[in-house]
Amino acid sequence: MEGNSRPPATVEQVVAAMDRLVSLSLVGQHEIAQRLGLNVTDLTCFGHILGAGDDHLTAGELAERANLTTGAVTGVLNRLERAGYARRQADPADRRRVRIVPDEGAAARIVEMYDPFYRRLAELSAGYSAEEIGALADWFAQAAAAMRATLEEIRRGGTP
């Protein structure tokens, strides 16, 4: 579909809109996590586990994606296993390493929770051209990289 004519916006307006979306998303993640009997960190990590598809993550890979220490990820995995969301499975290529495998029933519950939102996003996206969607995808990727760099600075004790 061809993109619609849109009013111009300033960078400040875009950042303010993003801040509102992030704030609302944090509230939504908290609500969804509570409904699923998880905390937000565990839900976020489970999202990374699901996002890996059949290329199951190691604990170290999950730690990197979630910006957590490996020690923190051990606690996350213990809780996810106890709650029936994931299990550790020996890596067939290296039996000393374990991979994190999502429970199929738990994955279905997560999809069911997020499906209405993703349907709304798909409907919203239909009003944008492929080029506009590409620009949005690029902007979000670059914004995520900027956030990662800022988090690294904060963790090193510097000022962002």
From TrEMBL:
* Gene3D superfamilies to which the protein is assigned, alphabetical: Winged helix-like DNA-binding domain superfamily/Winged helix DNA-binding domain (1.10.10.10)
UniProt cross-references to InterPro entries, sorted A to Z? ArsR-like_HTH (IPR011991), HTH_MarR-typ (IPR000835), MarR/SlyA-like (IPR039422), WH-like_DNA-bd_sf (IPR036388), WH_DNA-bd_sf (IPR036390)
Note the PROSITE patterns from the entry.
HTH_MARR_2
Q: Which organism is it from?
A: Planobispora longispora
Q: Which protein is depicted?
A: Putative HTH-type transcriptional regulator YcgE
Q: What Pfam families has UniProt attached to this entry?
A: MarR_2
Q: Which CDD domains match?
A: HTH_ARSR
**Domain HTH marR-type, chain residue ranges per copy:** 4-145
State the Gene Ontology terms under molecular function: DNA-binding transcription factor activity
**What biological processes does GO assign it?**
response to stress
